[in-house]
Amino acid sequence: xxxxxxxxxxxxxxxxxxxxxxxxxxxxxxxxxxxxxxxxxxxxxxxxxxxxxxxxxxxxxxxxxxxxxxxxxxxxxxxxxxxxxxxxxxxxxxxxxxxxxxxxxxxxxxxxxxxxxxxxxxxxxxxxxxxxxxxxxxxxxxxxxxxxxxxxxxxxxxxxxxxxxxxxxxxxxxxxxxxxxxxxxxxxxxxxxxxxxxxxxxxxxxxxxxxxxxxxxxxxxxxxxxxxxxxxxxxxxxxxxxxxxxxxxxxxxxxxxxxxxxxxxxxxxxxxxxxxxxxxxxxxxxxxxxxxxxxxxxxxxxxxxxxxxxxxxxxxxxxxxxxxxxxxxxxxxxxxxxxxxxxxxxxxxxxxxxxxxxxxxxxxxxxxxxxxxxxxxxxxxxxxxxxxxxxxxxxxxxxxxxxxxxxxxxxxxxxxxxxxxxxxxxxxxxxxxxxxxxxxxxxxxxxxxxxxxxxxxxxxxxxxxxxxxxxxxxxxxxxxxxxxxxxxxxxxxxxxxxxxxxxxxxxxxxxxxxxxxxxxxxxxxxxxxxxxxxxxxxxxxxxxxxxxxxxxxxxxxxxxxxxxxxxxxxxxxxxxxxxxxxxxxxxxxxxxxxxxxxxxxxxxxxxxxxxxxxxxxxxxxxxxxxxxxxxxxxxxxxxxxxxxxxxxxxxxxxxxxxxxxxxxxxxxxxxxxxxxxxxxxxxxxxxxxxxxxxxxxx
Length: 698
Fold this sequence. Notes:
There is one protein chain. By secondary structure, the chain is an alpha/beta fold. The chain folds into 5 domains: 85 residues, no CATH class; 162 residues, von Willebrand factor, type A domain (Rossmann fold, 3-Layer(aba) Sandwich), CATH 3.40.50; 98 residues, Immunoglobulins (Immunoglobulin-like), CATH 2.60.40.10; 225 residues, Class I glutamine amidotransferase (GATase) domain (Rossmann fold); 68 residues, Immunoglobulins (Immunoglobulin-like, Sandwich), CATH 2.60.40.10. The chain is built from 15 helices and 33 strands. Pfam families: BatA, VWA_2.
């Protein structure tokens, strides 16, 4: 048993007063001069017995009153806690470390963090007046606490204002920082009070326990008090991954959402609802069963009615840690595109027609492109305003008026694709369309005649492909074979960079084995231009019959119209930074978190913008110079899946890590008496006082 105010026990000496009164107040029997002595003696004996019993009861009640009151004022407790350690070891400088990691958001009506804050307040209140203290709120990026001091109100304010984060916290790092702050106190005693749920990922058990410098500079382990804010079991399931892929089999603008669900609990979960939501609208849902300590997947196919940048989230049935039951996504859904395909070499035989393979690719299931095919004469007469993209396939050079119309179309945001062929005159193209082309055309090079028996061996192939660029991003691994396996018998050579007015404004994304450009792209005003130096039919190459031709043409259409998903690889977790890549006239003036708060960002010399670190999950919006959102730059932040594992660290593991001298202070309601012991002592004293008065009146 321990006492908060042991000096109050001196008042228990007053319990001797009833004893002294009882001893010195013994009455002697008086003689009675009555005759019938036998009757008197019998009456005296009965009266003496009653008086003796009454005196004994009064003595017991008065002693109880005088013992109960001083013991109650001493505030006894039947537990060994930080005060017990103080009573044995003396005063100590104390650092209170409050875990503010994501797992502390787990709640069964009251969150673990709220319980942890109560524990931290109790730990502060338990300190003796002569003990200095400091407080460290442990986050993913903790700051070193100030030296221990006696400003209790300020420390309590720090605890009251603390909030849980959405990231994992390195508790081992926080304990090291707290231990360093304790070295600034002259007191010999050092104490670390750890308030945490003590889940599996909270401590790095492979690292040494925290130490402080002793009087002679040696490393000494401080006293460690573990105040557990958790529960014996914290069941939790989590959406650890949400993969979004085009579902071409379901039509244009259809996507497959694959949920990966992890169960960290000992019991299986049945019929968890998995749903795809945009705002308050549920676009698709299903149910998934997850075994105990297992993983399951669920796929949902969603078809969007319109294109553009879509922000939403995948959700699961919420549990104690609802934050890891949803994942935000930012999806660029291809908007319907209208393309004008200008066929420079029509042919009555379909597979010999210049536009045959391109039209088939753009009209394939899942393609967002509506292609309109015209011959060269009709094509130049078309009003380009309704179109998003123009494809010139082996077309003779336009006249000046037509070229001016095409330049205006591109500079206002349209896309232009140009492929070569026998009808392309390099000099005429350079004269009339040179301002649009990524590089001036030079001449046609023949690597081998198509009917040559060794044509496949002598034909050129693609050697260098920039798979980091969004246009070629999917063509990696085995998919790259569809590009590098194509044979090119003829192709147009381009002038070297710097030989024309387009210096520094174009990129070569693919080259042949001899180094000649195969694909070059450029920005012109608000639009984009792509130049393919071979043909899109089988006259100069067999590329149109390769498996990569169809998806590449669709990606050309998406890239040239600005609707190609270019943020697919931009993944950011809470606590990390992200590099945004504005394009063209895009600028960044403000970045806003899901709760509306502004997020710091810094422009870089290479044109990127570093945002963060981000502090919460969800969708982040980016505002341009005009203060309006730039949907193409929006991004989503996700949680670290490791923080969803809420399995508890065993007590023997904690004792082995911190040492056998560790003090354990539990905060579970079952271990806390509902009414303090001193309260019952006061109640007992009050009852004894009432009974004593009743006996005196009789």
